[in-house]
């Protein structure tokens, strides 16, 4: 089983970017990341976030398969295979987004309940606490309604 090679992928990103006479900052601006992130990828210190894989490949004019492999492919990847890779990246991005959303709602709900308990126990209703509680429950309620329909 082959694993992704950060060095090879980073080298390909740097090579293609330089062939296009673009700076790290140019690429960073297009993708909405910092030039430091581009530098890390190019040095093989890390990979781009899964949500950036397809936009990065499009920006560089290479396929997702080439980006994952870390080298240009002489035999172009067929459209069906590239489409499959694109779908996998999108599904991964959606799953990560869902997990972040769930985590945020768990935190917001926990904080709202804690504020509510503190207010009940101390019998002090700070206006900021009340606003926070109402906001959290409003967001939870609207999120539930949106998911339902």
From TrEMBL:
A Pfam family matched in the record: HTH_3
Keyword check for Acetylation: no
InterPro entries reported for this sequence: Cro/C1-type_HTH, Lambda_DNA-bd_dom_sf, WWWY
GO molecular function: DNA binding
Top-level lineage group: Bacteria
Keywords: DNA-binding, Membrane, Transmembrane, Transmembrane helix
Residue stretches spanning the membrane: 102-121, 127-146
Entry protein name: DNA-binding helix-turn-helix protein
Span of domain HTH cro/C1-type: 13-67
């Amino acid at each position: 089983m082959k694993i992704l090679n950060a060095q090879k992928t980073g080298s390909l990103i740097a090579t293609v970017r330089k062939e296009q006479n673009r700076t790290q900052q140019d690429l960073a601006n297009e993708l909405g990341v910092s030039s430091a992130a581009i530098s890390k990828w190019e040095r093989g210190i890390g990979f781009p976030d899964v949500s950036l894989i397809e936009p990065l490949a499009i920006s560089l004019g290479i396929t997702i398969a080439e980006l994952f492999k870390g080298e240009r492919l002489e035999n172009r990847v067929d459209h069906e295979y590239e489409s499959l890779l694109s779908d996998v990246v999108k599904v991964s991005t959606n799953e990560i987004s869902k997990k972040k959303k769930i985590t945020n709602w768990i935190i917001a709900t926990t904080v709202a309940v804690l504020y509510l308990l503190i207010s009940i126990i101390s019998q002090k209703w700070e206006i900021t606490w009340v606003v926070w509680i109402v906001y959290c429950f409003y967001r939870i309620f609207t999120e539930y309604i949106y998911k339902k329909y």
